[in-house]
C-alpha cells in the first residue's frame, strides 16, 4: 500500500491554506497563498476524503492511503498540484454536501455515491468506481442469509449515507437501524455485540474485514443490494467537473486506475467491478 506522506512542506501549505480559507475561497478550485514576504507564492488544493476506511481513505501515522486517496492524488496532479500541495480534510458522510457548498474543500473523493438528491445540491464528476451495498456480520453468525433477515436485527449504518437511507426506504424497513457518525464506530458496536450487522458498500466492508486485528472475526453477506456509483463531488456549477472527468478518463486509459485498484483492494481480496465509463451511472 502506498502512503501519501505528511511532509513538512504540506504542513506549511496546510497553515497557508487555512489562512486562505479564512479569507474566503475562490471558485476556480485552487487557493493561491502568498508567502507573506512578497517573493513568489505557493498554491494548494483541499480535498475531502474519509479518514477511517482502510483500502479507500485512511489516515495513518505515516500519511494517507487508499483507492480514493490515489484517485484524488492523480486528479490533483492533472489539475496542476503535486502531492505536497494537497491538504486532506476529513469528509464524513453527513458533511459532504455542506463542505462543498461552503467551499471548505475543492473536491471530495470519499466513497461518495452519485444520486439525484445529492445532485441537486452539488455536481459530480465520474463515476470512477461501482460498488454495491452489502452487510458485515460476525463470523459465527449464521442468522443473516438474505437482506430480508435484517428486519428486526440491530443494524448499524452512518448518518447521511445512502446505505442508511436504503435500509429505511426499501431494504429492511423493519430493522432496528442505528445511525452512527462513522463506519468505524459501527464496527466497534459489531465487535462488542451492541449491533448485529453493519451495512454499507462492499468495498468499505471488505477493507474492514481484512484488517489484521479483525482477521476471521467478520464476514460479508455478498448480497449486492444496490449499485453505488462513486463520483467526485464538486461545488455546483464548478468548472472542475469537466477537468476532473478528463483526468479520470486518463487515469483509466494509462493503466493507473488498474494499478490503484490492485494496490488498494488486493490486500482485502475485494473483487471490484471494471472501470465505469464517465457519465454511465448504473441504476
Ligand atoms: N457510498 C455510500 C454513500 O455515499 C455509502 C458510503 C459512505 O457513506 O461514504 O452514502
TrEMBL record:
Keyword Phosphoprotein: no
Species whose genome carries this gene: Streptomyces phyllanthi
Name by which UniProt lists this protein: Glutamate ABC transporter substrate-binding protein
Record family assignment: Belongs to the bacterial solute-binding protein 3 family.
Pfam families: SBP_bac_3
Stretches assigned to the Solute-binding protein family 3/N-terminal domain: 44-268
Keywords: Signal, Transport
Gene3D superfamilies referenced in this protein's UniProt entry, alphabetically: Periplasmic binding protein-like II
GO BP terms: amino acid transport
PANTHER family found in the cross-reference section: ABC TRANSPORTER GLUTAMINE-BINDING PROTEIN GLNH (PTHR30085:SF6), AMINO ACID ABC TRANSPORTER PERMEASE (PTHR30085)
Mitochondrion among keywords: no
GO cellular component, one term: outer membrane-bounded periplasmic space
SMART domains assigned: PBPb
